[in-house]
Amino acid sequence: MSHNKTLTFAFMDPPFESERTVTFFRLLDAALDANSHVKVFAYEGAAALSFAKQQQHGNAIHGHDTEQEDHPLTKTWIASLQNKARKKALSFEWINCGLCVDERGVNDTIPGCHRGGPADLWRYASESFNTLTIGTR
């Protein structure tokens, strides 16, 4: 691993429920732009962000079919961030809280996202330069 700083993020919001999710992804992107390694612990509803079975949908109100609507999926954003980190030779680790995953039935995740528990957040925070927790309220 390089001498770049590592930042840990703990996030709790589910996909598509608030503007905090977009802000969270922008913070991750900015951390990669600053050449920081990134560690994410997805807790509570955020455990569904990397759910592999998310599907786009149309918008009848706007008269758009699925392709025209091109609704962004959180799993795609995560994959883009993983790819950006890889291109910059930075680490990008993502762990979903296993209890939270089980409660929501979102066990099937995209590649590179793993199951863990609160001890992983402790480990991430202990190994990082700084930790940002973004709660639900």
Describe this structure in words.
The protein has 137 residues and is α/β, with parallel strands linked by helices. It has helices spanning 19-33, 66-69, 74-87, 98-104, 118-127, and strands spanning 6-11, 37-42, 92-97, 113-116, 130-134. It has a five-stranded parallel beta sheet with strand order 4-3-2-1-5, with helices on both faces. The protein is built from five helices and five strands. The radius of gyration is 15 Å and the shape is globular. Helix content is 36%, strand content 20%. This is FeS-binding protein.
Name the descriptors.
137 residues; alpha/beta; 20% strand; FeS-binding protein
Structure summarized in a few sentences:
This protein has 137 residues and is α/β, with parallel strands linked by helices.
